[in-house]
Design a protein that fits this description.
The protein has ten helices and 14 strands. By secondary structure, the chain is α/β, with parallel strands linked by helices. α2 packs across α3. The radius of gyration is 24 Å and the shape is elongated.
């Protein structure tokens, strides 16, 4: 009973948790000290104090470095959430201090370059950083330090979300690859090798599902991590690319269709329920949605 009382009454400074997480990440007091801009003895004292306060051993000290115990691993996950939440709370009041942008956004590399960066440049949106992530990991960043995730995959349960727009899927090709009257119909490229942007993004799933429904088999020669890479392949060898990006490298482009039905992928904004800046996030998301419908950044750029 005395232990429970002691544990409940114990308070730990956020700085101590920052030091603890730094050691847990690096496995080294020296590296953690450098990352936190403090001395090694300062880190060691804080870790020892934390272990004494919580009455548990958090690390096994080995020649190879600091290794989390089972108790340390349990604390690490929750300490990260605590630090990220504290950071969000602090950043939620930045606009009232007149200190500039607030939100951090995770998205695909393609979305970063062709949507989010232009959106910030044209509107001065309240975004302080963009973090490129692979499709399968984007929503997981909301459990770390990201405020908003912009992705094509269906939003996970328990999160706030909004459908921003539907981006048309395009076919990109060299002019010598397909006939001049090609209009984007996927039936007409069933004998041509295809490079598709996928690895977890919605583009690959939508194309595969749509063609499977009508019994159309495409020759997908490779699935790459970005639309830019898919188009680079189409520019350099006899394949066509399927992506949601505007045409690059002088390639021709047509909107992908099946029996005249345009294929498109949804684009969602997702954030945590109960985020300290929920109202401002909703305003930002509404602004992004309006900008997407007006500018349609997936369309080829034309010179005046």
């Amino acid at each position: 009973m005395e232990f429970i009382k002691h544990f409940v009454m114990a308070t730990v400074d956020l700085r101590t948790y920052r030091y603890f997480c730094a050691v847990a990440r690096s496995g080294s007091v020296r590296i953690a000290a450098e990352a936190c801009s403090v001395t090694q003895p300062a880190i060691s004292r804080q870790i020892a104090m934390l272990e004494e306060t919580l009455s548990v051993t958090l690390f096994q000290r080995r020649p190879s470095g600091m290794v989390l115990t089972a108790a340390g691993s349990a604390l690490y996950g929750n300490a990260l959430k605590l630090l990220n939440q504290a950071e969000r709370v602090e950043r939620s009041v930045i606009p009232w201090h007149g200190s500039g942008a607030t939100f951090r956004v995770a998205c695909l590399d393609t979305t970063l370059h062709h949507i989010m960066a232009p959106f910030i440049a044209e509107t001065g949106a309240d975004i302080s950083d963009l973090r490129p992530e692979r499709a399968h990991n984007i929503y997981a960043t909301l459990e770390e330090s990201m405020d908003i995730a912009v992705a094509t995959a269906a939003p996970p349960r328990g999160k706030e979300s909004q459908l921003l727009a539907r981006a048309p899927i395009s076919v990109h090709y060299r002019s010598d690859m397909l006939s001049a009257d090609f209009n984007g119909e996927l039936r007409d490229i069933s004998t041509v090798p295809i490079v598709i942007a996928g690895q977890g993004s919605a583009v690959e799933h939508i194309v595969r599902d749509a063609t499977e429904i009508i019994g159309l088999e495409l020759i997908i020669s490779s699935v790459v991590s970005s639309g830019r890479m898919a188009q680079a392949a189409a520019a350099s060898r006899p394949v066509v690319a399927i992506t949601t990006e505007p045409s690059l490298f002088g390639l021709e482009t047509q909107t992908a269709k099946i029996d005249e039905i345009v294929l498109s992928t949804p684009l969602y904004a997702v954030w945590d329920t109960g985020h300290p800046s929920d109202k401002k996030i909703r305003q930002l998301v509404a602004s992004l949605s309006a900008w997407l419908h007006e500018s349609q950044p997936w369309k080829p750029k034309t010179n005046p």
